[in-house]
Write a structure and sequence with these properties.
Order of helices and strands: HHHHHHHHHHHHHHHHHH
Strand content: under 5%
Radius of gyration: 22 Å
Number of strands: 0
Shape: globular
Largest sheet: none
């Protein structure tokens, strides 16, 4: 409802001559183009009801570009990012309070683990939000200027990511800290700071392994499943591997235009049934990879446009020296490998919001440089 209200306000405030001029831009076309392709995909979908639900689910892909490209919102960039970081911290506090409450009642430590801990949304999505918030704090000194508060917030959100036990979230966080380490060594030329950072990370990792091994165990399980190709017992990793194999088979048979916006799950179900993967059929799982999901539904044009949107965000953020935009492109690109994030509101709203926002503020080459000093 807040998104719809924002669009209505953008319409009612007028100034359409100026706004239409802003919409005449390559970035606006590619961000809205993906939604247009989903609309076209309805025409050759057999399941029209599923197709209509899908385009309703993805409405943010067209609404946020309409909002953000209408005006230059660069001057409130830090306020938007600060609001997001504060909201993630508050959400983490709520999850912790809930976990302690349930632990007090049941004395079950699972209250601090995965979906039982992340009660606001799916653990993978919450971990992605937290990871981006950490990235913002690390690369934008204007969000929290007090260094003590900043590093306490980073440590707190790092703990939250561990408690979500999201494999993609933990891997994304570790990759982020590796990028920070590279920046410290090659840009800041501070070997002492790098050694201190590595020491803290190793010590924290060992403590977490002893105190809270469940998050590490999930990563070890993923590693063993991949190395030994063991799909006999379905878990979150092995099921993904099976689904991805079926997805590639569907793509090979529907390369050019896909199966249609509403027929993705039905196509996957047919593949599961052919291979007697009845457990996957009952769970009605999607591709658990947005690249494959888009490729199945919209074919080659869909995957090309999706990659173009991410590529445009990465390229334009790089040449305008927008650290947050670069990290957002990398974070989204990484997480799309493990979840079909356009299939849930928690995913598509987050992605559409920040892609539209960063592309809209990057369209003007005269922007000031926002590299952290």
């Amino acid at each position: 409802m807040l998104i719809v209200i924002s669009v209505l306000l953008a319409i009612l405030e007028g100034g359409w001559k100026h706004k239409l001029k802003n919409y005449n831009h390559f970035f606006f076309y590619i961000t809205t183009g993906l939604y247009v392709l989903h609309l076209i995909g309805i025409l050759y979908s057999e399941d029209k009801a599923a197709a209509m639900f899908d385009i309703q689910q993805k409405l943010s892909l067209v609404l946020f570009p309409i909002i953000f490209f209408a005006d230059n919102l660069y001057y409130i960039k830090d306020k938007i990012l600060k609001s997001f970081v504060v909201a993630c911290i508050l959400a983490g506090i709520i999850c912790l309070i809930n976990a302690f409450y349930h632990y007090y009642i049941s004395f079950n430590s699972d209250s601090f683990f995965y979906s039982q801990f992340s009660v606001i949304m799916h653990a993978s999505y919450f971990a992605m939000y937290l990871c981006f918030s950490i990235a913002v704090l690390l690369f934008n000194p204007n969000i929290i200027k007090n260094k003590i508060f900043k590093y306490v917030a980073i440590a707190f959100m790092t703990l939250l990511i561990v408690l979500t036990s999201s494999k993609s979230g933990v891997l994304a966080m570790l990759t982020l800290y590796l990028l920070v380490l590279i920046r410290v060594i090659y840009i800041e030329k501070s070997v002492k700071k790098a050694i201190l950072g590595v020491s803290v990370m190793v010590a924290a990792g060992l403590i977490l392994f002893v105190v809270y091994p469940k998050s590490v165990i999930r990563l070890i399980q993923m590693k063993n499943t991949i190395e030994h190709h063991d799909n006999s017992e379905l878990n979150t990793t092995s099921s993904r591997i099976v689904i991805w194999k079926h997805s590639l088979h569907i793509i090979a048979n529907n390369l050019w235009i896909g199966v249609g916006t509403g027929d993705i799950k039905s196509a996957l179900k047919k593949e599961y049934n052919k291979s007697s993967e009845y457990e996957l059929t009952q769970k009605n799982l999607n591709a658990h990879n947005q690249y494959l999901q888009t490729f199945i539904g919209l074919g080659l044009p869909g995957i090309v446009l999706l990659l173009s949107v991410l590529g445009a965000l990465l390229y334009k953020s790089y040449i305008t020296q927008n650290h947050e935009g670069i990290l957002m492109a990398l974070l989204i690109g990484f997480n799309l490998l493990f979840e079909s994030m356009f299939e849930t509101q928690a995913g598509v709203v987050f992605i559409a919001f920040f892609i539209s926002y960063f592309l809209s503020i990057s369209k003007n080459k005269s922007q000031e440089t926002i590299f952290a000093s």
